[in-house]
Amino acid sequence: MLAIDAIDTFYGETQALFGVSLAVGAGEVLALLGANGAGKTTLLRSILGLTRPRRGEIRFRDRAITRRPTHEIARAGVGWVPDDRRLCPTLTVAKNLSLGMKATGFRRWTMDEVTELFSPLKYLMAREAETLSGGEMQMVAIARALLGAPGLVLFDEPSQGLAPKIVGDVMAVIARMRGEGIAAIVVEQNPDVALAVADRVVVLARGQVAWAGTPAELAADPALRRQLLGGLQ
Length: 233
Ligand code: ATP
What we know:
The chain is an alpha/beta fold. It has one domain (2-232): Rossmann fold, CATH 3.40.50. The protein has ten helices and ten strands. It has helices at 40-48, 70-76, 93-99, 111-117, 121-124, 134-147, 164-179, 191-197, 215-219, 222-229; strands spanning 2-11, 14-24, 29-33, 55-60, 63-64, 78-81, 152-156, 183-187, 200-205, 208-213. The strands form two sheets. The protein has a six-stranded mixed β-sheet with strand order 6-7-8-3-9-10, sandwiched between helices. It starts with a strand and ends with a helix. Adenosine-5'-triphosphate (ATP) binds next to strand 2 and helix 1.
């Protein structure tokens, strides 16, 4: 679904990613972990074309998207659930959701399906987005991504600031999406949340891939886990 080959990404003259490569298959959930400043958000921004890599290549469904504009990357089927949700604050939930609808070639989720996934959305439709709680905003952001018919969804710290019950609901939705063949990259500060739902793990450190493997490999080696994720536990 997604193949990233040796990308270097810069902010001005400051290099944030150094030769990062990874791949995500259809319906695969990849946990992207690492300390503050490791480059996780920059990697998502690179995929989305928001901060274009200076070198290297990103392919989505075997088409190069490295230097495509963000709206084309979205239309190809890459969805995004940003850490700050990015809802239009003075528009209603219904309007925010309808703004996300588009055709991509992947299956288009219906409004009924997303309200079945997140039942509180049913009675929030007429509310302005700025009046929602953090958990409700997260539900709208995920529903909006699904209405955009994604083949891959990038989640930037989906558990941040949410009550444990809502974190559980969000992870259950990611697992359900996997069942439908939708791939996901889940950036998390909280490794346990991401590892519980992930098929594979990539750990970034100082802009480079420090380790890649499965959650089981990481769980079986506490010393490795401490070394890679010590600051995050
Ligand atoms: P966090 O978990 O704290 O969000 P992260 O792993 O997502 O961290 P990034 O936000 O991708 O890390 O940052 C990677 C590096 O790029 C850091 O050194 C950061 O200071 C730098 N950086 C990020 N955004 C910018 C920017 N807009 N301008 C300049 N440097 C930036």
